[in-house]
Design brief:
31% helix; single chain; elongated; alpha+beta; 9 helices; two-stranded antiparallel sheet; 262 residues; 6 strands
Length: 262
């Protein structure tokens, strides 16, 4: 039974207001996760219902997805399962979609507009004397940047085909290094340099989810296992996002935790 069940209705509304204030001030909460937290707080403190049926009440309050007709609660809880999400750059991108090659640039990049040839199809052969002179064209109003990004950063920037993953030795987080076909040997050297570091890297610190245990007490591991994908496993750092080490940022400002049983 929730400890707030026996409290006067006014006290429960005040507690809901305080909880909502904390949720809106939590910079880790995305709009979907914030909606889930507010729905659970509403079911716990405000909505009339049976004790012990808080999650069912929250699921009814969230309704169903207009696209699939499935309860929105299911997807929101699955998305709150604590886990590490690698950056988009670490995905399996094809040529032309992956980040540009980051090998060192040997000579400055010079912008060359696209060449088009006016005249009949056979005149496009450059060796024929009657072929017209090529015309350099670019989009209307286009002008190259004064300093190209590839030159400013000193990187190749060509279409990448080879990926090397580097694991942070403190956090276990992944950084993707991409290289083009001209820099295969450079990619192999980088892969060899990070081999031992990757093998010794710790389990990645979660960077997604874990907000439900911050605000409410419940057997969350059981709940997450029901809604999260079958491959999900609880991280060794704990289920609550408050318990995860975050060497890059200070902890979010918050009042002392007042967990409520769900």
């Amino acid at each position: 039974m929730s400890p707030a069940t026996d409290a006067p209705r006014l006290d429960r509304a005040e507690t809901y207001t305080q909880t909502a204030h904390r949720i809106y001030g939590d910079r880790r909460a995305t709009p979907p996760s914030r909606e889930l937290l507010l729905a659970v707080a509403y079911a716990l403190f405000v909505a009339p219902g049976e004790p012990g049926r808080v999650l069912s009440t929250a699921a009814r309050a969230l309704g169903r997805s207009s696209g699939t007709g499935r309860p929105r609660f299911d997807a929101l809880v699955a998305d709150d399962a604590p886990r590490y999400e690698p950056p988009d750059a670490a995905g399996d991108w094809g040529p032309g979609q992956a980040p540009g090659c980051e090998a060192p640039r040997l000579r400055p990049y010079v912008y060359r507009p696209r060449i088009t040839v006016n005249g009949p199809k056979e005149s496009a052969v450059p060796l024929r004397p009657e072929s017209p002179s090529p015309v350099y064209t670019a989009a209307a109003g286009f002008s190259p940047a004064p300093v190209d990004q590839r030159n400013a950063q000193g990187v190749c920037g060509a279409a990448s085909h080879h990926k090397v993953l580097e694991m942070d030795p403190r956090t276990g987080w992944t950084t993707a290094r991409w290289f083009c076909n001209r820099h295969v040997e450079h990619a192999e050297r980088v892969a060899e340099q990070v081999r031992e570091q990757n093998a010794a890297a710790p389990e990645p610190i979660p960077n997604t989810g874990g907000l439900l245990p911050v605000y409410f007490k419940a057997p969350w591991e059981t709940v997450y296992r029901r809604y999260a994908p079958a491959r999900w496993e609880p991280p060794s750092y704990g289920l609550s996002a408050d318990d995860w080490p975050d060497p890059g940022n200070p902890p979010p400002p918050r009042t002392p935790r007042r967990l409520r049983a769900v």
